[in-house]
């Protein structure tokens, strides 16, 4: 059984070129992927690239107090929002009892992140009692006709209503604007951008019913006066009507459709955002809706939504079958309903861009903030200070690397070439992978991460030293280089794996229990530790096997670092047989 094992070992030792070719292919493939992705440098954190620092002040909502629990919840939601947008290395932390500081690095989605960090994202589905263009007299929410499956009737826009399609009218001074919604397979589709087309029939119908009682939709005279005086084009008025409102109140609201503003009287909330299980941005490939937000309700939310749409469908003849999707007091869309929708999902369309749809879906997915926040300061952070610190850090790293190389050259001589080649391979892999991780998982390189990479130089060099010392130990025992390289490997491999495992475990624990920039240090340390194992196994060991066949190293040249005399090697061992005695035929070892 020993012979086949020896043969396999010899075969493995005779083909170290395979491992070298494998790691070369990996380097070429990763480098090619880096250039193909269009990113040739790592993403930088706020301390190196600059960015924006935002100070938010908390304001108590109805039933929500400013306390540590609510502040911590807000920090967690903000963190998940900005990370969901792909803005990594963002710092969100409390300051004092009622302030939150948000540091957002410069990047692709940094503007979206700035908009989202303080957005409450409270979502409600409310019935539309009346609506009108900004500056116009109040008009009741009307729906000229509702069509069911298998029939078609004209809508104000002049289009035929098809399968499970409903339309609603939003009056304008000269024409009727339609806000169309359609339910397909139980999913609501709402178009928040009306089309303004003339419809004499719809306009006259709406004008005829524009009485104070009808236009108020059941609201009292005071609310009607506020509605008539509301100017949605003024930001301060939009903020005022959204403050101190409860889900059970009848409220005023504004909504922007294209460049025009519309105002609404809305009934109590029938479904709220906590009933949304998940939301994601999607593209309507079968229609003209473009980008949309697809929501899935919880089981309880699906039942509420089905009940609400069934009730609204019954009011189609009275024109009270329109409802509004309200986010933080703004009407996102206001479709009408012709029949109950029981699928447990809804799709919000509104001529969204991809960025807007992803932003809205992101806020809905991670929930509403428990408190309202006001932006106190927004400060632009420059990268000047971070650049100086990076320069100092790189200088320290270069000095450290130079000292390591000097030590290797003096102590290991020819073996230092192996160590430096291995360090170079490790550096290339580290750089390329960090660059690819930027667009892949939004990894951003900050100052602590640079420190982690510098510390990794020592970890990687330590692995080479362990292996070199094992080889030297075998030579001191009187073995030639080729068997010494192979016999030293199992012992060195075990030590390297244990050492790297401890380093990786420390990095993993540090990454889990810390937040912010310290995670960058831990991540880089863990990454370089893994790469150390890859480089030692697939580059350093095969390269030593090849060099052991070269005369310069095999003969123990004094500049090879493997000179038996300078290492104090024992004389070679040889076997001799005893010629007589009771133990004739046995083998003794003695020095030559």
List the SSEs and their pairings.
Layout (H helix, E strand, L loop, with lengths): L1 H12 L3 H21 L8 H4 L1 E9 L8 H17 L6 E5 L3 E7 L4 H7 L6 E11 L5 E2 L24 E7 L4 E9 L2 E5 L3 E3 L2 H9 L3 H4 L5 H9 L5 H8 L8 E7 L2 E13 L3 E9 L5 E8 L1 H16 L8 E5 L2 E4 L11 E8 L1 H13 L5 E10 L2 H29 L2 H27 L5 H30 L4 H33 L3 H31 L3 H4 L9 H4 L5 E5 L9 E5 L1
Parallel strand pairs: 8-16
Antiparallel strand pairs: 1-3, 1-17, 2-3, 4-5, 4-11, 4-14, 6-7, 7-8, 7-9, 10-11, 12-13, 13-16, 14-15, 18-19
Helix pairs in contact: 2-13, 2-16, 12-13, 12-14, 13-14, 13-16, 14-15, 14-16, 15-16
- The strand count comes to 19
Class inferred from helices and paired strands: alpha+beta
- Helix content estimate: 40-55%
Low-confidence stretches: 1-12, 139-219, 583-587
Span from first to last CA?
32 Å
Tell me what portion of residues adopts beta-strand conformation.
15-25%
Structural shape: elongated
Task: Give a summary of the structure in a few sentences.
The chain is built from 18 helices and 19 strands. The protein has helices at residues 2-13, 17-37, 46-49, 68-84, 110-116, 200-208, 212-215, 221-229, 235-242, 299-314, 354-366, 384-412, 415-441, 447-476, 481-513, 517-547, 551-554, 564-567; strands at residues 51-59, 91-95, 99-105, 123-133, 139-140, 165-171, 176-184, 187-191, 195-197, 251-257, 260-272, 276-284, 290-297, 323-327, 330-333, 345-352, 372-381, 573-577, 587-591.
């Amino acid at each position: 059984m020993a012979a086949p094992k020896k043969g396999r070992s010899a075969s493995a030792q005779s083909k170290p070129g395979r491992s070298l070719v494998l790691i070369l292919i990996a380097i070429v493939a990763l480098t090619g992927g880096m250039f193909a992705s269009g990113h040739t440098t790592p993403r930088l954190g706020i301390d190196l690239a600059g960015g924006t620092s935002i100070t938010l002040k908390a304001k108590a909502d109805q039933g929500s107090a400013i306390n540590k629990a609510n502040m911590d919840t807000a920090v967690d939601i903000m963190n998940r929002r900005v990370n969901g947008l792909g803005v990594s290395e963002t710092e969100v932390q409390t300051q004092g009892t009622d302030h939150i500081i948000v540091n957002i690095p410069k990047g692709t989605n940094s503007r979206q992140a700035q908009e989202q960090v303080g957005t409450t994202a409270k979502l409600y589905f409310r019935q539309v009692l009346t609506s009108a263009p900004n500056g116009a007299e109040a008009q009741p929410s009307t729906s000229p006709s509702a069509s069911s499956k298998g029939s078609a009737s004209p809508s104000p826009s002049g289009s035929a209503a098809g399968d499970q399609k409903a339309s609603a009218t939003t009056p304008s001074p000269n024409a009727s604007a339609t806000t169309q919604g359609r339910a397909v397979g139980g999913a609501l589709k709402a178009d928040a951008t009306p089309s303004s087309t003339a419809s004499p029939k719809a306009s006259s119908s709406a004008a005829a019913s524009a009485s104070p009682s009808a236009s108020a939709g059941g609201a009292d005279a005071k609310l009607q006066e506020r509605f008539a005086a509301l100017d949605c084009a003024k930001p301060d008025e939009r903020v005022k009507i959204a403050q101190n409102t409860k889900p059970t109140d009848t409220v005023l609201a504004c909504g922007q459709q294209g460049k025009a503003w519309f105002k609404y009287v809305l009934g109590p909330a029938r479904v709220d955002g906590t009933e949304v299980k998940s939301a994601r941005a999607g593209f309507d490939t079968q229609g003209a809706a473009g980008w949309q937000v697809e929501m899935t309700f919880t089981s309880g939310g699906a039942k509420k939504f089905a009940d609400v749409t069934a009730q609204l469908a019954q009011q189609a003849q009275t024109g009270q079958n329109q409802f509004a999707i309200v986010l933080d007091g703004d009407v996102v869309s206001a479709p009408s309903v012709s029949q109950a929708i029981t699928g447990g999902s809804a799709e919000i369309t509104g001529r969204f861009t991809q960025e807007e749809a992803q932003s809205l879906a992101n806020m809905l997915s991670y929930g509403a903030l428990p408190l309202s926040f006001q932006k106190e300061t927004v400060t632009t952070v420059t990268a000047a200070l971070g650049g100086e610190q990076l320069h100092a850090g790189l200088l320290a790293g270069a000095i450290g690397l130079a000292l390591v190389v000097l030590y290797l050259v003096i102590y290991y001589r020819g073996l230092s070439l192996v160590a430096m080649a291995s360090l170079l391979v490790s550096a290339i892999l580290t750089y390329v992978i960090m660059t690819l991780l930027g667009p892949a998982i939004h990894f951003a390189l900050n100052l602590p991460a640079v420190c982690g990479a510098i510390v990794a130089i020592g970890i990687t060099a330590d692995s080479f030293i362990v292996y070199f010392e094992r080889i030297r130990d075998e030579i001191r025992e009187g073995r030639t280089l080729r068997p010494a390289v192979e016999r030293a490997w199992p012992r060195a491999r075990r030590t390297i794996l244990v050492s790297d495992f401890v380093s990786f475990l420390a990095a993993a624990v540090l990454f889990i229990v810390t937040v912010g920039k310290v995670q960058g240090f831990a991540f880089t340390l863990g990454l370089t530790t893994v790469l150390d194992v890859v480089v030692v196994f697939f580059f350093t060991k095969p390269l030593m096997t090849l060099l052991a066949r070269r005369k310069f190293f095999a003969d123990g040249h004094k500049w090879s670092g493997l000179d038996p005399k300078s290492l104090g090697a024992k004389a070679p061992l040889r076997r001799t047989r005893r010629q007589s005695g009771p133990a004739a035929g046995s083998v003794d070892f003695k020095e030559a």
